[in-house]
User: Fold this.
Amino acid sequence: MIKQYFKIAIRNLLKQKGLAIINIMGLSIGIACFSLFLLYAVNELNFDRFHAKGDQIYRVYRATEAMGDEKAESDVYLPMPLGPALEQDIPDVASFVRMSEGWRPDFVKADDKIGRLEVSFADPNFFQFFSFELARGNAATVLKELRSIVLTEESARQLYGNKDAMGKIIEIKLEDKFEPFVITGIAKNPPANSSIQFKALGNYQFLPNTSQGKRSNNNWNRSSYPTYVQLKEGSTLFADNKRLTSIRKKYYPKARDRSHQ
Assistant:
């Protein structure tokens, strides 16, 4: 019976070739478009969902409401002392991570060759706080030392080819001179559906040794660093504008009160 149905369908298609081609093309395009939209939706819905503690991790925003001629604003680039202050002042905050993002490729020396690589910095607990995978190294200690640095697999291949990069010295030009760092870990390349991307990651505690870091250290009026907090289970701090605003008032006592959170 099914074989007969197929024969009838083929005869009808052959009789109306033009219409059949249009229908088949329309169906194919529709299925292709639906598949692309589905893949896009799945990717977006899974953005940053791979972190084991993802439901407790929040990126800190500074948002201000419009007042007079001043427009409403929001940004994620915050002062260096904010993370420690949040952990100290708000019991809901279990831990924090600050980052200094690589804005442009820095000059690096690796195996007596000079190349370019975007270098970021993060607090030493970065690989325990987030769930980025390490191919080599221990998440608890990989950024422990002041001059530790972690390369991604892609960056390690770029600089060292098929050689083992672990333990090698890489020199990074920060400001006006090359600084030596020890490669203490190799991270798997960050997933495409991650809002945090990095190619090389150094210890954030090194930054106060730089001129810019010295100007930013304990300075609430210089804002350059994305800050993430892990809240304790059951915390509603993310929706508690009163407590969030109290932090701003404490560290900016002379600022006009137009804060949203």
In short: The mean pLDDT is 87. Helices lie at 2-15, 17-45, 82-89, 126-129, 153-160, 211-216, 241-251.
